[in-house]
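Input:
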Amino acid sequence: MLKMKIPGIMSKKGSDLSKKAGMAPGTIAYVGEARAFTPWIDVIEYGPETFTEAHKIEPDHCPEEDAGPSLIRWINVTGIHDIEVIKTIGNKFGLHALVLEDIVHSEQRAKLEDYQDYIYLVVKMIGIDPKNKEVTTEQLSIVIKNNTVLTFIEDEGDLFDTLRERIRKGNKKLLISGADYLLYSILDTIVDNYFIVLERIGDKLEGLEIRLLTHARAADVQELHGMKRELIYFRKFIWPMREVVSLLSKSETLQIKGNTSIYLRDVYDHCVQAIDTLETFRDLSSGLMDVYLSTLSNKMNMVMKTLTIISTIFIPLTFIVGVFGMNFNIPMFGDPNGYNKVWIFMIVLVATMLIWFKRRKWF
Amino acid sequence: MLKMKIPGIMSKKGSDLSKKAGMAPGTIAYVGEARAFTPWIDVIEYGPETFTEAHKIEPDHCPEEDAGPSLIRWINVTGIHDIEVIKTIGNKFGLHALVLEDIVHSEQRAKLEDYQDYIYLVVKMIGIDPKNKEVTTEQLSIVIKNNTVLTFIEDEGDLFDTLRERIRKGNKKLLISGADYLLYSILDTIVDNYFIVLERIGDKLEGLEIRLLTHARAADVQELHGMKRELIYFRKFIWPMREVVSLLSKSETLQIKGNTSIYLRDVYDHCVQAIDTLETFRDLSSGLMDVYLSTLSNKMNMVMKTLTIISTIFIPLTFIVGVFGMNFNIPMFGDPNGYNKVWIFMIVLVATMLIWFKRRKWF
Amino acid sequence: MLKMKIPGIMSKKGSDLSKKAGMAPGTIAYVGEARAFTPWIDVIEYGPETFTEAHKIEPDHCPEEDAGPSLIRWINVTGIHDIEVIKTIGNKFGLHALVLEDIVHSEQRAKLEDYQDYIYLVVKMIGIDPKNKEVTTEQLSIVIKNNTVLTFIEDEGDLFDTLRERIRKGNKKLLISGADYLLYSILDTIVDNYFIVLERIGDKLEGLEIRLLTHARAADVQELHGMKRELIYFRKFIWPMREVVSLLSKSETLQIKGNTSIYLRDVYDHCVQAIDTLETFRDLSSGLMDVYLSTLSNKMNMVMKTLTIISTIFIPLTFIVGVFGMNFNIPMFGDPNGYNKVWIFMIVLVATMLIWFKRRKWF
Amino acid sequence: MLKMKIPGIMSKKGSDLSKKAGMAPGTIAYVGEARAFTPWIDVIEYGPETFTEAHKIEPDHCPEEDAGPSLIRWINVTGIHDIEVIKTIGNKFGLHALVLEDIVHSEQRAKLEDYQDYIYLVVKMIGIDPKNKEVTTEQLSIVIKNNTVLTFIEDEGDLFDTLRERIRKGNKKLLISGADYLLYSILDTIVDNYFIVLERIGDKLEGLEIRLLTHARAADVQELHGMKRELIYFRKFIWPMREVVSLLSKSETLQIKGNTSIYLRDVYDHCVQAIDTLETFRDLSSGLMDVYLSTLSNKMNMVMKTLTIISTIFIPLTFIVGVFGMNFNIPMFGDPNGYNKVWIFMIVLVATMLIWFKRRKWF
Amino acid sequence: MLKMKIPGIMSKKGSDLSKKAGMAPGTIAYVGEARAFTPWIDVIEYGPETFTEAHKIEPDHCPEEDAGPSLIRWINVTGIHDIEVIKTIGNKFGLHALVLEDIVHSEQRAKLEDYQDYIYLVVKMIGIDPKNKEVTTEQLSIVIKNNTVLTFIEDEGDLFDTLRERIRKGNKKLLISGADYLLYSILDTIVDNYFIVLERIGDKLEGLEIRLLTHARAADVQELHGMKRELIYFRKFIWPMREVVSLLSKSETLQIKGNTSIYLRDVYDHCVQAIDTLETFRDLSSGLMDVYLSTLSNKMNMVMKTLTIISTIFIPLTFIVGVFGMNFNIPMFGDPNGYNKVWIFMIVLVATMLIWFKRRKWF
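Output:
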């Protein structure tokens, strides 16, 4: 799980990716956050009329190959940091070394590889951590071989709980369809979750917009910048996802049957819509910096006008009274109305200036 | 109906889309503004020589399948928020579950799906609310099956009144053409309406341009930003529309006949023209922020010059008179022309400064 | 004729386009500037050995179909605002209703439509009004059917005078070539005229550049913005023109013969060159706003430095003399050199400050 | 030869191009700088074993057609401003009227035309004038017909001297290869020269970068703007060149033989590298304006801080001493320590302010 | 080895590339940094069961052609600045003159050339110099002919030490695979190293971001600009690399066998990921300049507010006390409470101003 907070992502990402440099290609080395728990395996088997479920079974007892005709088996592995577990399962299903390498490398780009007798997908789940309300990303590897769907997730999560519940409750469409429909259901769940994060960003953007247009504070720029970052990273995850789903929906692999294509096309439409919304948010947020700078300029103008009006009025007046503060024997000192004359002159001067400022629309 | 006012759109959009997360795919759930009225159905049937019309009929009485040879039937459903109504109609016409899901989901992107024996279109109507003069968007779903055209709109509206009137009055071209020509007439009406909104934006842009070039106020930035938003959203709606019409005009489906293609090509040309105008507005408005910032900078320059001229002239003078305000026994106090000499010195100083400012073109 | 002056274009454009909304498709309604004169028709017929010319003939007497073997007939209609005239001619040549609709709609995008037995082109002429030196645009519709070339222009103009003169004088290449070569000659004339407008914009840009780099005034921003507008609109007209000419030069329609392709390719090259020049101007002008803002900033810096130097020097001095203006019995008053000591102190202070400023390169 | 100095290029270019407007297409009219000298022709003939050279021969004596089997003839025409010369040569080689028109039109875009029995190329030479160190551009037209290579240059130049020298000295590869290898050698020379200009721009950019990052002056903005202009024009010349070379290297014309393709591909690689370098320079220079503006802002900040610190300290002090300059009978005047108390108060005040400024990191 | 420090790269690059201008094409001339050492050759031969290694052998003793069936020979040349060495090896393997020219020209763009019986690749290694921590780039030329892999590097380096170690230790996959798998291993090592540099840039970006958002200094702009430069150059190297690997993975040359494609596809995925990360960094860094400018503006606003508040309060007060400093016989002097009244007036004035500032949220 990768948190999209300000500095975290980059340094961590960098170090993870560079860790592989120098290793032999095909070396299966875990790249990702350090985790302590022991990975476990859950197995669900279902068909039009049967349903069985097994929790936390040992890797060695993980079933091999297919469950039986018209039975779908979904094997979910929670935790990819124990290389031995991944290797054991990989051997059972005859997965290519590069696939195993990718499964335990949690910094992949979404992709689809067709290995003739099975297909391998990497997708990115994006969600909001219920604890600290931060955006999190997690990598999901999916392998489909005949009627078996293998999924590998990084950490425990409840994203697929509703999907499992639907299987348990015997959702008809699911039960009578093949492994490809289960794949579709998984992808659909993931893409639907993108909109929750987009909604959150949209809400923030809205609040920011109102503040920036009215009384911008320096902290708002930080928030705007943080949001732009989120959008940049989100975009990096979501565009390859669109590609993967597009490939799947056009795919002529053995694993995807014709009548599932229309459903995958629907997921594709949702991906495109998520991208559309994302790009709209990017366009909106890129305009906001300009708005903020103009608000700042406007404020500065106000401040400077105030200073200029006050200075322009009182500096000459101070000079005038300074003149009569000189210790010369100034002729006007003899004039009994001298003091009043000075005041009259000063009042006329100020009035003239105020008219001049008024004409220039300074206030 | 979705109003494009400043913050509204985003939060609403977000929540609508995320509502679907967690539901089983294919679940038909209304996504959109809450509405209270009971949906109703209007049916028009016409042919070269006949015309019948039925208002506000019950969903159960909605006619099934075709009216008869060379008869076109247009069934319009107003209100998509009652799922039962949509399901009833969907069953009558054998529509796919995903189509029904899309019909009641009012936040779709314009798209075209070809289901062999019928085609399904989602398009976006953009108009101006006659009450509050705000830009509104509404989703229109169209299904064409043989000689029947099914349309689903979100709310009551008068956009198609003139089209219905033309049918009633027996527009010859319409009466002798097929369902595809009716589809063309509907799309043509929608695209023509885009230009009304574009005109409004153009008028605003023009007013803004004049103001920003002359005496920009802070409120103008808000208006400019609001207009950019409108353009961003408009663009998001209009580009997929262009794609849909392009696909239709090239389409080789059973529903679109060859001689209607040239008309659809005409709608496509209008779409492209609307996009051209939109992009022109975007180019113009993106230049305006720069203009505004330069106007602001110019104003600031003026303000600062005023301050600097006044300060530069009077601060040294104030120092000079301050010197003679000191309670020392300054030699010049004995000079009877001392006071006049000080004035002469000060006048010469001011004159020198004014010449210096003049040469630098400060005023 | 559409003038590209500051606010005019948009409001007019908007209203024209939205006028069509609500009309039945295929309705032939004039869209464009109001005009009072009666349209007229000029006919030129020529062949290798013959040449006849007829001026201002009635629409009803407009010749139909072809003049005879190896004779080219050029029918030019001046004025498209009288729908009856257009309809009469349309009927004579069997033009499609959509073509007639487009001919009288003066806000089209350049396009090419192939109707099997004739081709229809819309192109944009851009020129400079000899009276007020403003950029004007006019729409030209061209129909080619066998050996007849029909042209429709909005208003009287002298753009094609030299072309007609060449025919009259018996330009050999023109006389022995077909209608497609006449079409080429017309397009060549139009594209050559684009360069006159580009030259004018180039001249303006050059003047502006020199001014902005040296002593920018606020009015220059207005001019820069006006020029950017012109470029935006020019671009909108010229890109579709390029497409049309490209299609023509590759076209395999009956109307364009093989040996004319090479000439059309030449017009295409000129279009591309015009676009190149246009984009170069856009690049140049987009850099100018930055230059202007930096010039402004520089000026501001100068102004502020002046203020700061004067204030920093004289404000402390004023304080010092203020100290000795206090009515306390200050010890130094007893010192006969007190007054001189104060001056020495002040001179040292100013000298120190000047050195400090000098070191920081403030002047 | 076209100099890329600040205002020259545009006005000249504009007028040249617009000169053609109104002329009949195919009219051979010189477009370019006025030149006085009489054009001359140089002929080189070489084969595996022979080499002959003729200087400044008359157009009428220019050899026609091929020199003989396995002999390559290179005819170079210096000066394209005398139309008669061009026409004479054009007739000898049967060149199309449009080719002649293009040869004498020195404002062409690089292009390649295949006229079946010969190919015609326009390319742009870019170099540095050895006299005034300015960037110059010159147009080169090349015609290849069988074993003859015709080149047309605008003015005398030494660009191909080294190439001629290689032929004279009997470079083996050149002597045994065909006319297409000579073409390759010419193009290679031209593209290699692009890098000399790029180097010059790179040097300027480097100097500018250092200055802008440290002590930017207003003149630097002018230089930066001038360099951006050079890059814009360079780009306009070099992209079409890349296209031409790409077409040549893929070409299946009779004039280019298979084994020369690999050499042309090498020239193409150099073109791409030149474009890469150019785009890198563009990216770098576009970042520099931002750097300059931030440097300016920084300086302004410094200036304003200085002003603010001085003003904030001394303006209140001046007020305080002003209070005791009032001619009231202020109680403190009676206090013998009054004067010292005032000083103590003022020193405490200044110290407080300095601490405040220090905490805010103002200095 | 090319260091990406501020001015170095450009001037050096420029001069290197322009050096070739004027030389005959195909001239083998070293372009790159001056180097003094004598190039040497290392040879490794291995097969499923054998392994031999030879260090620093003479060019003349360099083995020719293949080692034997199922034996892979890797010949590595360190140092490309001695043209004779390159020519000797080139002759032994029958390399084309253009290939030799490219090998010794260290400023190439990554590319792939297929010469039927061998393929030639240029790739760019990017690393961090262990001594001065600067980013360095080095060119690597690779030739694959049957079972022999020829590599040419500019300078001694330890990048491939781990790869050689793997061969020595008898990595099974390597030993049983062909020359194409060795090529893959080399490319994989290079691309993995890109991530080390990306990590470094990411770390810098992170530090910069935090500083710019909080207390930006002028030096940070220099660092930001330097980082943008690094990204621009990195991008220039990495995009062509992606092309090369993509071509290789799709290649149907004799040198690349089908089952190596999947490995090359993996390297391609890493390239794309590096580009993704790079573009993300570019997006992030381009937003940072805006952030910096807004931080600067904000600071300026603070400074100006301070100045304005102090000036606005004390300048009028100074005027007031100045009035009573005049040597007139002001009536209030007679008032025993005069002095106190003045103070009361001044305190009320200041209080009013503070309230006014507070309301405008100036502090």
